[in-house]
Amino acid sequence: MAAVNREPILIFERSQPGREGTQVRPSKEKLPPPQLPEGLKRTAPLPLPEVAEIDLVRHYVHLSQSNYGVDTGFYPLGSCTMKYNPKLTEAVSALGGFAAVHPLQPASTLQGLLRMMHDLQLWLADCTGMDAVSLQPAAGAQGEFAGMLIFRKYFDLKNETARKVMLVPDSAHGTNPASAHIAGFEVGEVQCAGRGGIMTLELTEEAIAKFGADRIAGIMLTNPSTLGTFEENILSVARRLHEIDAQLYYDGANLNALLGLARPGDMGFDLVHLNLHKSFSTPHGGGGPGSGPIGVKGHLADLLPTPVVALNDGVYEFESPARSIGRVKLFHGQFLVLVRAWAYILMNGPDGLKRIGENAVLAANYLQARLKDAYEIPYATYPDGSPRYCMHEFVASAEKQSESGVRALDIAKALLNDGFHAPTIYFPQIVHEALMIEPTETESLEVLDTFAEAMLKYARLAQENPEELKGLPNLAVKHLDEVYAARNLNVRWKP
Amino acid sequence: MTFVPHTPAQRAEMLRTIGADSIEDLLRPVPRELLLKRSLIVPPAQGEVGVMRMAQELFALNSPVPLNRIFAGGGVYPHHVPAVVDELAHRGEFYTAYTPYQPEVSQGMLQCIYEYQSYVCMLTGMDMSNASGYDGGTTLADAVIMAYYHGKGKRNRVLFAPHVSPEGRQVCMTYCAGIDVTLEDVPPTRDGRTDPAALKQLLGTDVAAVVFQMPQCLGYLEENLEELINAVHAAGAAAIVLFYPMAAGMLKSPGELGADIVCGEAQCLGNHMGFGGPLLGFLACREAFVRVLPGRLIGRTVCERDGEPGEGFVMTLQAREQHIRREKATSNICSNEALLALRTCIYMGAVGLGGFQHISALCHANACHARDVLGELPGVSDFYPGRLFFNEFGLRFPAGMRDRIYDHAIERGILAGIKPDDRCMEGLSDALVFAFTEVHRADDIAALRDAILEVL
What number is the ipTM of this complex? Predict the structure, then answer.
């Protein structure tokens, strides 16, 4: 990494009055006086910086060198699916025919773009085993929220106003209970931890007894769960819940384990969301843009968010589903992200998509096998002690290591020191000192082995010399104080 | 073509280490009846050549309109994206990174978002900005929900001034389904302004917020916005302004006019239109609203740099967010529009003070010139005669001609504005709303005029 200054230098601090930046239009152009209301005309100048383009470039190149992406190295964040982002998808999405189009240009003059979206709707429906798809939601969480509103409307239309409870397992990602809550549901937590970590018929019966068959609207499940375990009882759980007409929601964050192998629609799910920035390899962008299309079974199709792309007598059109929950965002969705997913599916074809699921599961089990003696992996065995294969990720615990004072946080920082990105730590909350590891299918065996060897080294150090491990890392920047940040809130530069 | 690097020998080696016979073996936890017995129905694998060819085949089905002949706004505008923005934002360390939960290896992105937050505060006149929302519609919904929670849920009405984005309002309706809020409209004057008397009548102690758009969605400016906001405050409600940030080069920021929460669409600052996505929602507020501000927030803090005391950046006040609050969260946002926020940050630094002022001035000047040129055409009149605008305005055309003009323009490779009735604005079938930016020159405006004249 590049040399580090003690104080970060902000772009505003590189400003020199009178310096010209990028010339979008020649600055010497003279313009007539503006025709604006006096009371609204700007009087105070904006404190924008004045930097030369060369200095701007060096500023952001330098900052990029203090950042770690998949292009830099291994990034085993559980449930994030940090797989390789193919460069061809970047090039396709940059084509002017996609990128320089106004969203309100009439659909009748953009049949090619609507066809792409319609095809993608069909392909995603087939990948998930669902009947209809909306490409609108901007991220998984927005797909979840749309899904929750769809469930609410489904019951409202049947006059079942008591259906207020959404079941959510304790291993769920935070967005699940948050989405249910902001849609107006009461969250009913199901304790799967200590009961094998997955949903069972017994847990289902207990929930029905506890909340009431007429009060449960549905359940939100991730399959595989955030523990990396397949929901083995899903068919019987789905059957039981459908008996009381509760709806099943599938959080698609872990779809990478199943792509081409099994489909949530076949498991009994009524609504799924996908994270295109996970299984479909669109880049994470440092925190977005994502894309969270949702798929539904037929009985929910006319509640989808507006608009969807329909094919009517050979013409592609935007349509508003008859009983739509409404619009969840402006225009048609994260279009240039959809383009990347479209290109990704085309590059893989049906065989390539199946290889994704197979190899994601293979890579995760390989790491689990290599680490299971040195680290506790609570769900690497069934409750009866027999070995259990994980799906595309597994959750290791630093429980053993914490006996000598080494915690998951220390291991994560040691990995950063050794040039890896750390796995997800302290999630799911039901595993103590959790390290959630998802290698994905795009990492070579050499990378997997280097990672495994580093983890084994830390386990040894934790036993033999915990202080040395805790003394790492020798990162250029460390001990960023989050308490100080919250107490001395500084979220913008002031001139 | 796939991106799986394992050779058959390596797959066999991995299986041996695991102690499994085959991949099918690893799938033992999956019930047999769930395993797919057929291939997925997608086209056969293409190479790069095939994918590019398929993209070109799609384009052949479109009527292309070059950037400089797009005269449409409505939230997304045909601005120029400087080359340096595309190039810098496309560094793999930025765009292939995850959310900066591990700040030690994410100082680059964290600083960029801190700079972005700073720019948003400058342009809006607010105290703090979040790290982005999905777009100008969802951040409007966020603003409404913020006002609701700020009022502790006791104020259940939100008023919309005339001519606020119809799509934005629709998104608010969807998002408010989960809380107890009703949306109401303030009637306009005959020329589309907020009627101050009507506003005062509708205000009350049960109003959480009033939403204004600046400029209004047809492009016009409300001269007395500051007075209107004063009236809102007098009733104890919050003033929300949906703002087009490019206008900040020429106009006061909404903060200077008294706004409490400012939101909007920042695609105009360094991002491609992309047929409507991805976009960049910004959301900023006065300090008093920070506890209800959704989304990520990057804060500056102390740290150690090479063993010496130093400063750096972290995600802060995470206790507001879904991964901490879970079923008590007021927003569920996780992934946002970070890469577009990075692009906007780079854009603002690239064009800088002089460039931004000039681009903003050009948007306005081009619109004024176009209005003069088009307003002279036979039978064409201003949508709201005498009203001032920033870079967007409406014109009415002779009865029955509007659609023919629009279609003819497309044939000439011109997008002649937006049909307001397409955006759920009733009774406007003779009108078009035009927008102008720094990409337009006199010859583009002349071409637009000629295309219209050919039909009139």
Answer: 0.97
